[in-house]
């Protein structure tokens, strides 16, 4: 079923920047404002190095980057997206994801740092994981089922995001990106090679699907 612009998610089962809200548009204001950028693919140099910290907050450029990341993530049907996935070498990521309990989480974070979570409040879970920069394949990756990430919002305000289940996986995955690490790097060599082969077979179809989604949003992908 298609969702029209302006549709909202009712009640308080939405958390924006970690805080509960009464409702939130399916297609957010950031998506409507943003441009759809090309998503970088495994093998590109920007994905393999640690990103630079953001030092200037409240700028038009940072706000525009975040809008574009939301639009790009939406068109690609992603759960989250890091800045180096749109070829920008900065420590920023965004998310729009529904967790295991049906709660939608939407937000962005700048210069994120993962907290050490108490051993009494976590367990290692092995579940399938994919990546917009590895179009197509999914692989089982061990991740902690709780993650706490600290950073700032685009205006420099302190931010703490606490995630569990699938959302915790997303927070860890995107933080990995900003350290130059893909989920493929957590696989044994043989499994990584198989995933890359599957990616080559699936990539054209995935790219076509993303382009079609961008056009439905009234946007042309930006190179």
Structure description:
This protein is α+β, with helices and mostly antiparallel strands and about 220 residues long. It has one domain (about 10-205): Peptide deformylase (Peptide Deformylase, Alpha-Beta Complex). It has helices at about 30-35, 60-75, 165-180, 190-215, and strands at about 10, 15, 20, 25, 80, 90-100, 105-115, 125-130, 135-145, 145-150, 160-165. The chain is globular, with a radius of gyration of 17 Å.
What's this model, at a glance?
Helix content is 28%, strand content 29%. It has four helices and eleven strands.
CATH C-level name: Alpha Beta
The biggest beta sheet, please? 7 strands, mixed
C-alpha Rg (nearest Å): 17 Å
| SSE arrangement, N to C | EEEEHHEEEEEEEHH
Number of helices: 4
**What structural class do helix, strand and pairing data support?**
alpha+beta
Topology of helices and strands:
Layout lengths: L7 E2 L4 E3 L2 E3 L2 E2 L3 H5 L26 H16 L4 E3 L9 E7 L5 E11 L9 E8 L2 E11 L1 E7 L5 E7 H14 L10 H28 L7
Parallel strand pairs: 2-7
Antiparallel strand pairs: 1-4, 2-3, 5-6, 6-7, 7-10, 8-9, 10-11
Helix pairs in contact: 2-4
For this entry, give a set of tags:
single chain; 223 residues; alpha+beta; Peptide Deformylase; seven-stranded mixed sheet; two-stranded antiparallel ribbon; 4 helices; 11 strands; globular; disordered N terminus
């Amino acid at each position: 079923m298609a969702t029209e612009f302006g549709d909202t998610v009712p009640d308080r089962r939405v958390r924006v920047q970690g805080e509960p809200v009464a409702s939130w548009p399916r297609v957010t204001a950031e998506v409507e404002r943003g441009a759809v950028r090309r998503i970088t693919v495994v093998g590109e140099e920007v994905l393999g190095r640690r990103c630079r910290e953001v030092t200037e907050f409240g700028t038009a450029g940072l706000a525009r980057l975040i809008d574009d990341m939301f639009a790009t993530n939406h068109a690609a049907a992603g759960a989250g997206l890091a800045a180096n996935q749109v070829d920008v070498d900065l420590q920023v990521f965004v998310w729009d994801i529904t967790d295991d309990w049906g709660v939608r989480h939407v937000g962005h974070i700048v210069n994120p740092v993962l907290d050490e979570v108490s051993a009494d409040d976590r367990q290692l879970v092995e579940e399938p994981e994919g990546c917009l920069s590895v179009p197509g394949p999914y692989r089982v990756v061990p991740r902690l089922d709780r993650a706490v990430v600290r950073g700032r919002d685009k205006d420099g305000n302190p931010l703490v995001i606490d995630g569990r289940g699938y959302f915790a996986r997303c927070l860890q995955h995107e933080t990995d990106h900003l350290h130059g690490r893909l989920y493929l790097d957590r696989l044994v060599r043989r499994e990584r090679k198989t995933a890359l082969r599957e990616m080559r077979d699936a990539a054209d179809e995935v790219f076509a699907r993303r382009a079609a989604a961008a056009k439905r949003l009234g946007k042309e992908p930006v190179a």
